[in-house]
Design a protein that fits this description.
Chains: A alpha+beta, B alpha/beta, C alpha/beta
Strand content of chain A: 5-15%
Shape of chain A: globular
Distance between the termini of chain B: 46 Å
Radius of gyration of chain B: 16 Å
Radius of gyration of chain A: 25 Å
Order of helices and strands of chain A: HHHHHEHHHEEEHHHH
Helix content of chain B: 25-40%
Oligomer: heterotrimer
Distance between the termini of chain A: 44 Å
Number of helices of chain A: 12
Strand order of the largest sheet of chain B: 1-8-7-4-3-2
Structural class of chain A: alpha+beta
CATH class of chain B: Alpha Beta
CATH architecture of chain B: 3-Layer(aba) Sandwich
CATH superfamily of chain B: Bacterial phosphonate metabolism protein PhnH
Largest sheet of chain B: 6 strands, mixed
Order of helices and strands of chain B: HHEHEHHEEEEHEEE
Number of domains of chain B: 1
Structural class of chain B: alpha/beta
Largest interface: B-C, 39 and 44 residues
């Protein structure tokens, strides 16, 4: 006997109850606390903050817990919360040159002022599963004896010798665009493009950056520098006449040093690709800087031949909240549209058969 | 039947590593004799040198071909199947590895697979047992892997070997590669080697 | 808890080793041709030497002595990491001395000390296809190799000359092997290209992420591509190594301050240390102690 599907509301409510149950899992297993997630799943928290465009570890941890660990779902939750917040203004540009550095490496110079510092990295770990980490016993880290020496940025050092192009020609007093406030209008300026990339999907940017290495828009990249650490966020208060500190945030910065370019007027020099992301997010920052450099093709007069150089293609598809929404919307009912299609195709088939019968 | 079951390497990991290094060194240095570790004889026409290379190179992913003499002895076929799981093919032209008991049982070189111009690696490697790696007619070799001319004198090569080899060489990058085995040693003749008769 | 994972000698399972060994034998028989192989996941990321590690793991035995260098140096982090990996999973003896090693795994350099017969140099290769930057599609480059159609490469090099007055490729400089295959030497500086020619050592190349293995047997012709009016040239340094005074070696630039101060030191740390121990001193070196 045929029974029409009904009772959507009850179905949804039941589904959500089931989701909550599954999210909690076995009640005999202690529930996760947010501080456990913040402390022990820190890189997931960082990614949720970065692509969620909101610096708040507790909220990101909550989003992760609620999303059962699904990162894009957590990012969606953070974004959806962020958009509800009032806006007070825009901070001053952060000074990454004054960063309290925890990790800093350069692939272009073996040694340099400030030194190379590996920091808390997966690099050089052997990816062998280690059952010994389950538990509370951990080795004490070696604590740095002295304050680290000043670490000037590699790109600045190259810049002083004229080997590196200047860092853009954006007016420091000019207004910076805000893609969360205005719809995008192609072609974009670099500020908007970098914003889009900073919140873009890590996997998508990784694949695009990778494609440039494999010849689809090659840019001869070198990691001039990657630095991870805390920077001060300052806010200009016109009433006070000076900037006040809002606190510190952890960021990852990647400066890619790319292919020299020269023309009749300008002598050859290295060009930049830039990545800056909330938290410890090295892969994302590196991918971002590769894609940033690729997207500067138009500005630098290079032929646009590869997907990573196609601004509209890249920026239109880099946002995973948008992407997941549209892809997953295909689950939603399309009965009406499909019905129209069905009708059309049936009519065309009927005409086809009629024609064949005549012949 | 005893040899069929337990005739393989006693320590497969280490022994196949040292056999492989002998084969690699042999092909990288054509005409030199390399010591080939062997398991104890299985008591059939498949001599230990053939067994060694078979066990080191073949598995489910490689098609192998045994010549008529080897194939006529069921214990050889059982041994190869049991220890390698390699699919046995009837035509030499479909084999990744061909194991040949003696020059008399050896088809002409052009019966084996020379690979394609796009994928010259999809070719047959032939392992040929000869009575001895010395004492035969003098041959001189030139090509990659050799600083100067190398002189060899394996005995029991097929008739008109030098002529057949010249045709094989001319196919480059296509072509077959040859490993000669005897007396606990192996000698490699990759497709790049130019062979002339005499000193 | 699940049982502790067990790993085979040299990490890889025997079936994987056999597959890689077969590819190596073909690579040796067809010098410069890239043999496809089914690269495995390794406990280190792609791009960090998984190809080289798979090749080394497939050839290494208990009697081998392994040296690992990255950028010429034994003490770079990735070199230390890979050396430690093999010391752990294959319990092999390791060394920093080029002459003592039977297998040398390298990223981006060939040791300054001439290699000898019986040594194997294993290169880590990121992009094995020399034509990749002219033609991104594998189907096309395969055809070009098959037909020995290398005109595009010469056009590219000649465009360099037209634009820059010289061939602007400084590393991963393409070579022709035994007069047939154009091959990528991995991103070694072109300074090292001549060392590949007629080397007494066997040279194996592993590209894990790109699933390719290729080889140059000992005493094989390796010629850097060039033109009659623009012959191939290697880099020359204006000053010798500041620590050991070596000339005719490849040097790293080290920045000393942010006011343009810098010095040049040997990229090959083993060669530099040996020279200092033998009493050679550069402008900033203090002989033996500096090597400690």
């Amino acid at each position: 006997m045929y029974v029409a599907v009904k009772g959507g509301e009850a179905a949804i409510s039941n589904a959500h109850a089931l989701l909550a149950d599954r999210r909690r899992g076995d009640r005999n297993v202690p529930a996760l606390r947010l501080d456990q997630i913040v402390e022990q799943l820190g890189l997931a928290v960082d990614r949720a903050m970065g692509e969620g465009s909101l610096y708040d570890k507790e909220l990101a941890a909550l989003a992760l817990l609620q999303a059962r660990g699904d990162l894009i779902e957590a990012i969606f939750l953070v974004r959806a919360y962020r958009t509800t917040l009032p806006r007070f203004g825009y901070s001053r540009p952060v000074d990454t040159g004054a960063m309290l550095i925890e990790r800093r490496i350069s692939a272009t110079f073996k040694d340099l002022p400030g030194g190379q510092m590996l920091g808390p990295t997966f690099d050089y770990t052997h990816r062998l599963l280690d059952p010994n980490i389950v538990g509370d016993e951990v080795p004490q880290p070696v604590i740095r004896a002295a304050e680290p020496e000043r670490a000037p940025r590699v790109t600045d050092m190259l810049g002083q010798q004229g080997l590196m192009e200047p860092d853009g020609d954006t007016d420091p007093e000019g207004e910076v665009g805000d893609l969360t406030r205005e719809p995008l209008d192609f072609p974009l300026d670099r500020d908007l493009r970098l914003q889009a990339l900073a919140r873009g999907d890590e996997g998508f940017l990784l694949a695009l950056g990778y494609s440039t290495q494999r010849g689809y828009g090659r840019s001869h990249p070198f990691v001039g520098e990657i630095r991870i650490g805390e920077v001060e966020v300052e806010f200009d208060v016109p009433e006070l006449g000076f900037a006040v500190s809002l606190g510190r945030i952890r960021v990852t910065e990647c400066q890619m040093v790319n292919q020299f370019k020269g023309s009749a007027k300008v002598p050859p020099q290295f060009t930049r690709g830039y990545g800056l992301v909330f938290g410890q997010a090295e892969r994302k920052a590196m991918a971002m800087s590769l894609v940033d450099r690729a997207l500067r093709a138009r500005e630098l007069g290079e032929d646009i031949v590869a997907p990573a150089q196609d601004e509209e293609f890249v920026i239109s598809h880099s946002d995973n909240v948008q992407a997941t929404g549209f892809v997953e919307h295909l689950k939603l009912p399309h009965y009406v549209d499909f019905q129209a299609e069905l009708d059309l195709i049936r009519r065309m088939r009927a005409e086809h058969e009629a024609k064949e019968a005549l012949e | 039947m005893e040899g069929v079951i337990d005739g393989a390497f006693a320590d497969p990991v280490m022994q196949s590593q040292s056999v492989f290094r002998a084969l690699m060194d042999a092909l990288a240095n054509p005409g030199t004799m390399r010591k080939l570790p062997v398991p104890r004889a299985i008591g059939t026409s498949m001599i230990p040198e053939l067994v060694s290379t078979l066990l080191t190179l073949s598995d489910h992913d490689t098609s192998i071909w045994l010549d008529e003499v080897l194939r006529s002895e069921p214990a050889n076929v059982q041994f190869a199947s049991f220890h390698t799981g390699a699919p046995m093919v009837a035509e030499p032209g479909r084999a990744a590895f061909a194991f040949v008991h003696s020059a008399e049982a050896m088809p002409p070189l052009d019966q084996f697979n020379p690979g394609t111009q796009d994928y010259p690696d999809r070719s047959t490697t032939i392992v040929l047992a000869v009575p001895s790696l010395s004492g035969g007619p003098a041959l001189s070799l030139r090509g990659p892997g050799m600083k100067d001319e190398v002189h060899i004198s394996p005995s029991g090569l097929p008739g008109d070997f030098v002529g057949q080899w010249e045709i094989n060489r001319a196919l480059f990058p296509r072509g077959v590669d040859l490993l000669l085995v005897a007396d606990g040693h192996v000698m490699g003749l990759p497709r790049t080697t130019r062979i002339a008769e005499g000193q | 808890m699940t049982a502790l994972p067990q790993y085979n000698f040299a990490y890889l399972d025997e079936q994987t080793k056999r597959m890689i060994r077969r590819a190596i034998l073909k690579a040796i028989a067809i010098p410069g041709y890239q043999v496809p192989f089914s690269s495995r996941e390794m406990p280190m990321p792609y791009g960090w030497g998984t190809g080289g590690v798979q090749v080394t793991a497939s050839i290494i035995g208990p009697d081998d002595v392994l040296k690992v260098i990255d950028q010429g140096a034994d003490d770079t982090t990735n070199a230390v990491s890979i050396r430690a990996f093999f010391a752990k999973v294959a319990q092999v003896q390791t060394t920093t001395h080029t002459a003592e090693a039977s297998i040398i795994q390298t990223r981006h350099r060939i040791p300054e000390k001439p290699l000898t017969e019986g040594q194997v140099l294993v290169y880590q290769v990121p992009i094995p296809e020399p034509l990749r930057f002219l033609e991104p599609r594998e189907t096309e480059t395969r055809k070009m190799h098959a037909l020995e159609e290398y005109g595009l490469m010469h056009v590219k090099l000649y465009e360099d000359i037209a634009r820059h007055g010289r061939i602007a490729t400084t590393y991963a400089y393409p070579v022709k092997v035994e007069g047939r295959y154009v091959m990528d030497p991995s991103p070694t500086p072109k300074f090292d290209n001549p060392k590949m020619h007629m080397s007494p050592a066997l040279q194996l190349f592993g590209a894990g992420r790109e699933h390719r293995i290729y080889a140059v047997p000992p005493y094989t012709e390796v010629v850097s591509l060039d033109f009659e009016d623009h012959p191939f040239e290697i880099q020359h340094f204006a000053e010798p190594c500041a620590l050991c005074g070596a000339t005719e070696v490849y040097l790293d630039e080290v920045i000393l301050d942010d006011r343009g101060g810098h010095m040049f030191v040997c990229s090959d740390t083993d060669n530099c240390e040996e020279r200092r121990q033998a009493g050679h001193v550069g402008s900033l070196g203090t002989g033996r102690e500096a090597a400690e």
